[in-house]
Protein: LPP20 lipoprotein
Organism: Photobacterium aquae
Amino acid sequence: MKYSLFIVVFASLNAWAQPDWVEQVKPDSSAYVGIGIGDTLANAKLDAKNQIASSISSTHSFEISQTVETIGDEGTQRSSSHTHTNADHILLPEISWPQIASEDGIYYVMGKVSKTELVNLYERTLAISSSEFSGQTGPGALSFKDYLRLFEARDELALSAKRAAIISDSSAAGKHYHAQFVELLTKLNGYQSSSCLKVNYKGHSYEGKIFKPMVESALSTAGVNVKNDAACETLDINASSESSRSGTQRVDAITLYFELGSPVVRSKTVALEGKSSGSKKAALINATDVFNRHFDRSNSLMNFLLDPATSDVVIQ
């Protein structure tokens, strides 16, 4: 009886044994290797893909971890696998699958990515990205137009620098592209820290005495160097307003108009209200409080002015 029980337990444990190539992965200097486990073949392959991405770069993160649970006649087996990755900056060429196996609803796969194919893919991708910034590359200083181009593409520049870093040790082209994108990011940051902006109010002097300091303060909060200097880039502002009354309260509906650069490269409008139980001046001062609460350190006025995707804002 004891002998029979031992045979049953041994057979059950043997039934759950993983393939040898899962437990003992043979090193391959020519490829990145990932072992995947999942409750479906697709999930197992995705898990292997994540493992390969992890081998290529440690800067990405895994987000969703799934527990694979299979119930069979002999009991329940649990194993963990990753089913989602946030490694958007990791490029992968075609993955080969030299090993695929399944056991009691659990899938095991081995995926491989050729290191040579990976480098070739990155070099082609970086060459395309690099060509888009040929006008901003080199020893010359950035113009305001160049600065706007780099500012709009700052996420793309950072992504390209990360990708170039991945192959820089094994590719002369990768090292070149990495230096180029780091240089562009350095130029972008340098322009931001050394440039200045001059605010000109084009409307009535009465409103200008209130709105010009308001805008200058919001720009300074955003880290912009505001100066009354002809050498600075310009920001022209104007305003229109309509007054009404709600009971004893005065309400001024105000639209602010912004034109950035000379010639103008960005035109924006901001609509808001100022309220007061007293004078127009008090209503306009209330509007400045509304403006400053909206455009704070976490919601920069300068970023709004530079963003090409947004033209109008209504502050409630």
